[in-house]
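[Discussion] Sanity-checking designs against the backbone

I'm trying to build intuition for which residues belong where. Below is a structure token string of 249 positions. I'd appreciate it if someone posts a full sequence so I can compare it with mine line by line.
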């Protein structure tokens, strides 16, 4: 008999002094899946592409001001024939095949976007880069206080602090710290999760993240129609195997 995996997992909860004060349940559909590297990569490229403004522009020879007069006559000068001083080979002339305003926006199916963020979060848990903290709102909104809190947690080169909503205390405390950024749980994205080495999530933000990204119960349990299709495929495979064995006999 195969052992069924639990739908929840647990993580240690730290206080602002770096002491473990308890444990919190984590939804396995968000924090415990096998990370899909290809989908994460595609989501990251999409996010970076969508951030491009695409306002770059160059002028063609027809758009550069001036150059309407032929610089010299066609023949008899000993020089190469020229029709305009705004031709691409001239300094100050037009640009050939230069960039022009365009959109770099990429589309991606919703289910793939959701899988990408769940894969990024699960990768943090797998690598031991997730820290759940409690009581962060109770500290002073000062850089010194926030620096002390981060210094008491497991070390990391960079930290992303996730809060359930807007927090003046956390924002002001981390605003001047190098390689420390804050983000609201509703704006969590693949780029920021992958960019920062350690993910520090407040205990209250766990519920917000899971409310946004967790799979519904209908998605976790196969429907009776899907089970019927799987059973039909298994029966067909069995019949094919029996027929093959019977033919060889």
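Best answer:
Here's mine. Compare freely.
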């Amino acid at each position: 008999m195969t052992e069924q995996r639990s739908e929840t997992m647990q993580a240690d909860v730290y206080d602002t002094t770096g002491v473990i004060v308890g444990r919190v349940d984590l939804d396995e559909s968000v924090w415990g899946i096998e990370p899909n590297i290809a989908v994460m990569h595609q989501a990251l490229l999409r996010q970076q592409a969508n951030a491009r403004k695409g306002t770059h522009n160059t002028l063609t020879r027809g758009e550069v001001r001036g150059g309407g007069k032929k610089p010299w006559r066609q023949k008899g000068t000993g020089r190469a024939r020229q029709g305009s001083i705004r031709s691409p080979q001239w300094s100050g002339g037009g640009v050939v095949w230069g960039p022009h305003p365009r959109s770099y926006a990429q589309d991606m199916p919703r289910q793939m976007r959701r899988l990408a963020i769940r894969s990024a979060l699960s990768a943090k848990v797998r690598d031991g880069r997730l820290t759940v903290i409690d009581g962060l709102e109770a500290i002073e909104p000062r850089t010194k206080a926030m620096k002390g809190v981060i210094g008491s947690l497991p070390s990391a080169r960079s930290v992303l602090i996730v809060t359930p909503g807007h927090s003046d205390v956390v924002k002001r405390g981390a605003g001047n710290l190098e390689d420390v950024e804050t983000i609201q749980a509703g704006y969590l994205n693949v780029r920021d999760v992958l960019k920062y080495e350690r993910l520090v999530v407040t205990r209250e933000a766990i519920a917000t993240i899971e409310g946004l990204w967790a799979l519904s119960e209908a998605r976790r349990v196969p429907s009776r129609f899907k089970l019927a299709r799987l059973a039909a495929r298994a029966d067909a495979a069995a019949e094919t195997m029996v027929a093959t064995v019977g033919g060889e006999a």
